[in-house]
Amino acid sequence: MAIVKFTLNHQPVTVQSDLNRRLLDVIRNDFNLKGLKEGCGEGECGACAVLINHEIVNSCLFVLANVEGKEVITIEEFAKTKRFTVIKEAFAKMGAVQCGFCTPGMVIATESLLHKNPHPTEMEIKVALSGNLCRCTGYNMIVEAIQEAAKAGEGLW
Amino acid sequence: MQKDISISVNKIDNYEKISGCAKYVNDVEIEGALYAKTFRSPIISGEIVSITVPKLPDGYFAVDYRDVPGKNGVKIIKDDMPIFAEKILRYFGEPILLIVGPQKSVVQSLINKIILETKLIEPIYDESNIAINYHYEKGNPQNAFSSANRIFEYTYQTGYQEQAYIEPQGMIGYSEGDKITLIGSIQCPYYVKNAVLLALGCSSEQVRIIQPAVGGAFGGKEEFPSLMGCQLAVAINKIHKPIRLIYEREEDIEVTTKRHPAIIRMKAAVDSDNSLVAISSDIRLDGGAYLGLSNVVLSRAMIATTGAYTIPNVDCSGIVYLTNTVPNGAFRGFGAPQIFYAVEMFLNHIAKDLGIDPLDFKMKHLAKQGDLTSTSGTFRDPILMNDLIKRALEISDYRRKSQKYKLENQLRGMGISLFFHGCGFTGSGEATIIKAQVKLHKDEQDNVDILIAAVDMGQGVRTTMSKIVAHTLGIPMDKVRFPYPDTDFVPDSGPTVASRTTMIVGGLVAKAAQKMHDRWQNGVADTVIEQYVQPDYIVWDEATFHGDAYPAYSWGVNIVDVSVDKVTNQVTLEEAWSVYDLGKAIDDLVIKGQAEGGITQGFAYGYLENMEVKNGKVRQKNMTDYIIPTALDTTKITTELIDNPHAGGPYGAKGAGELTLIGGAPAVAMAIENAIFRRVHNIPVTPESIMELIEYGNR
Question: Are A70 and A64 in contact (CB under 8 A)?
Fold first, then answer.
């Protein structure tokens, strides 16, 4: 047991726990934020993605100890932003959502990409999504949604 | 005039899913829920001699077959799969008991301390244990073969495929008095309910099944959740506390049902003007350790044995054999992907042997309206395959590219597949087994609730059904609600399977809405119940496979352009085109999603997804070594529809969900075959198999 301090969705938080716990479990169970999902538990599917210091991270592979002093944003907080609204509308418009289990992770991946590269090429989008698995859509409609978001959200990133 | 129903709307669950608010089973919190984990067979085949469970701390429980108050068999078809193994262990990972308790880590350590003594039995992996043996004929195949000009015979093999829904299997449940409620990631609420009723031997009002958001299913959550539901219900019945049973990915891949591997031998008789006069096929499915749904999968495969073609004489046999391996089951397509792969490759190979163009050869035999089906039923609706093919050839520039790649000989190839899918349950299943019922309820504020058991697992059924109702009633979408199915409130509209939901259930919903519309009174509550009635022209004899196997068929053409890397033999999809006749799209964007997602799974089945079972164990353990497509594996896909409304479907809609997967594998396998100038017989066509084909294969 140890004490870890970090910022979760802009709030400073303190967790007293086993340092080896997965950040995924800490966020879902200790903070009851269920927007991130466990799809594989081994860093392949990206359903558990969060932003840590604005980089996409698979929270299932990230142990609590490593989050000390860092800034974590989950889908719940990101969903309050203007950028999210643009992404949401683009995902809806292009039919990027089917079962929805991968979708919060896809949204996090989109934000992480557009934050670094507001005008990505199709290939750059595919590379940015390659750590997020979707079994329903075949991906093209997600790629199109991200292109649409980049266009509609011009200036936001 | 009302606008065209196909014009897309914002899906009703878009916002909750994009924002992460949608509640999947593992997001459901129930105060004090215990954690359950399954203790599984560590051997492949044997007998339990003794089980020693360690002393359980207070609040921890072991649940096994002795706790099953009703029948220790999961209600699927023959109920042959035990809920918990009693004595005989038939596959690696077969469930023996549950350990249940408050702490996950303690539960796991208790599982690790269980001592199981077993006596090994020699496992069976070959065809010696035949569980199902079907046969049917059309015309007089014996005569046709004996008088044939030429006879061709080839064998095709297909591998396993894992559904790989991103949300693993899971269920959570609780009891109130003598009533048990289960909330699960499921496709078929009433399948689970009926299975639990048999397991508990209790009355219908004592079991309630609720469906939350479902993170993908693809058939994988058709019959498997009935097993989990029975186990969980038995545990809750014993412990009387809420319990959570959620699989991790490795457990899910190891023990849940997969697509049946198949060996298909095909023989054809061709007369002197190069017409196919007879086909004889022998389809052999590995069912795994228990029968489950395998005989129905086999029927669907057998019925499609002539592919999209009319062949006057047919002799079709099929078996399901049981082995000491993980049980196989439902997966989008349900036997059709295997048989269409085989028949498409077979016709392609016959044409090549005859020295004629494969597509011309296929088009010469296309089924037409009024023709007899393989089972001597009738294709009643117009068949637009010639239009579909014409359009697909145009948008893909298929002929020119095929010729160009052939001459260039640069490991590039085009492939094309022609296929159909029978919509709804096979034969008289809808009338005799399912007997679907739907209900619409209007309250005094004129809000209309759709009360059906159809599950939205991503295919958009909540939006599709809401659209049908809003359109028929002429009211805005936001006046229509589609609550998540709950067996306490919705009638049994049947399982969400078999490409039946839009056509059959949607058809009933449209009828109910029309009735409500015709007697509509503002501000007055109203309820309409509608029951499925089989069209009287559908006559099917299950014993002889004779008659109309399906009320309607959806049709498709897939074309793909692939390249093969000269050094690594990796296959790259360069571009793909599809044209479908699925009657009428209820929502264009939903159908585009089905089309792109389905073909991606179909292509991957043909060249990418590789699962092997060796010595009774699945060798792929997780998403790291069972490779499904990533964004980088996809290509540009163009999809077009040609309307061909079917009178029995809502607004003319037929089935769409499975159709879009079926043509992927034969198209990609044929494209690879054309790229490497070697005959392909087995899928998946992995880089390793391409290397072998280039070295040793036949041209």
Answer: no
Interval B314-352: pLDDT, tens = 999 999 999 999 999 999 999 999 999 999 999 999 999
For the stretch B86-109, pLDDT in tens is 999 999 999 999 999 999 999 999
pLDDT for the residue A77:
98
Among the listed residues B311, B273, B280, B306, the one whose alpha carbon sits nearest the alpha carbon of residue B149 = B273
CB pairs under 8 A between A and B: 171
- Per DSSP, the residues of B298-311 read HHHHHHTTTTTB--
B82 cis-preceded (ω within 30 degrees of 0): no
Q: How far apart are the CA of A4 and the nearest CA of chain B, in angstroms? A: 22
Mention every residue, 6+ apart, whose C-beta is less than 8 A from residue B495.
Answer: B187, B188, B190, B191, B222, B434, B453
A47–B contact, CB cutoff 8 A: yes
CA dihedral B584, B594, B432, B321 (to 10 degrees): 140
Q: What is the pLDDT of residues B24-83, one digit of tens each?
A: 999 999 999 999 999 999 999 999 999 999 999 999 999 999 999 999 999 999 999 999
Q: Please list every residue in chain B whose beta carbon sits closer than 8 Å to the beta carbon of residue A79.
A: 19-20
Residue B238 pLDDT > 90, yes or no? yes
Structure tokens at B495: 């399982």
Region B216-227 average pLDDT: 98
**Cα dihedral value B549, B553, B557, B558, nearest 10:** -70
Q: What is the 3-state secondary structure (H, E, C) of B394-433?
A: HHHCHHHHHHHHHHHCCCEEEEEEEEEEEECCCCCHHHHH
What is the DSSP secondary structure assignment for residue B505, as one 8-state letter?
A: I
Give the C-alpha separation, B181 to B25, whole Å: 13
Bridge partners (DSSP) of residue B563 are B412, B572
- For chain B, helix, strand, coil in percent to 5 are 30, 25, 45
**For strand B571-581 and strand B636-641, is the pairing parallel, antiparallel, or unpaired?**
parallel
Spatial separation of the C-alpha atoms in residues B105 and B94, rounded to whole Å:
22
- For the stretch B465-513, pLDDT in tens is 999 999 999 999 999 999 999 999 999 999 999 999 999 999 999 999 9
CB within 8 Å: A143 and B213: no
Task: Tell me which residues of chain B, numbers 21 to 50, contact chain A at a CB-CB cutoff of 8 Å.
Answer: 21-24, 26-27, 29
Burial of B129: CB neighbours in 10 Å, binned 0-12, 13-18, 19+:
middle
Task: Tally the residues of chain B.
Answer: 699
What is the rounded distance in angstroms from the CA atom of residue A107 to the CA atom of residue B188? 30
pLDDT 10s digits, B536-550 = 888 899 999 999 999
Kindly state the tokens that stand for B137: 């004929």
Q: Whole-angstrom Cα distance, residue B488 to residue B45?
A: 41
Between CA B617 and CA B612 the distance in angstroms is 8
Q: Which residues of B touch A140 (CB under 8 A)?
A: 596, 634, 636-637
ipTM, two decimals, is 0.99
Name the residue among B88, B129, B81 with its Cα closest to residue B286. Answer: B129
Cβ of residue B638 closer than 8 Å to a chain A Cβ: no
Report phi then psi at B113, rounded to 5: -95, 0
Q: Is B623 on the interface with A (CB under 8 A)?
A: yes
Q: Measured between alpha carbons, how far is B235 from B332 in angstroms, rounded to an integer? A: 31
CB contact under 8 A, A92 and B15: yes
Burial of B574 (0-12, 13-18, 19+ CB in 10 A): middle
Which two three-digit tokens encode residue B45? 């085949």
Residue with tokens 């560590």: B42
State whether residue B237 is helix, strand or coil: helix
CB contact (8 A) between residue A136 and residue B164: no
